[in-house]
Write a structure and sequence with these properties.
This protein has 87 residues and is an all-alpha fold. It has one domain (4-70). The chain has four helices and no strands. It has helices at residues 4-25, 35-44, 46-69, 80-83.
Length: 87
């Protein structure tokens, strides 16, 4: 059964992944002014900052796929009491 809330959240995560990947490989310079990314770029260089954006993209993509497939930790699974009709 498809949970449309999970589908929406996974689409948002995948859009964030696509955006982070575009920042990592594209010519866009504004995201590199963010404090943490600027600190990494200053200390380790621009290639390391680009790798950070690509790592964020990969993590977001994996999270989006996991959410879409319904993978969640055992403590987040619905209990039989919460699935049934409410009276």
């Amino acid at each position: 059964m498809i949970n449309y809330n999970d589908l929406f959240v996974s689409c948002v995560a995948m859009l964030g992944s696509a955006t982070a990947f575009a920042v990592g490989i594209g010519p866009w310079q504004e995201p590199y002014r963010l404090r943490t990314v600027a600190m990494i770029a200053q200390r380790y260089g621009m290639p390391a900052a680009r790798m950070l954006w690509i790592a964020i993209a990969i993590i977001s993509l994996v999270a989006g796929i996991a959410i879409a497939r319904g993978i969640r930790p055992s403590y987040a699974r619905p209990t039989p009491e919460s699935v049934g009709p409410k009276i």
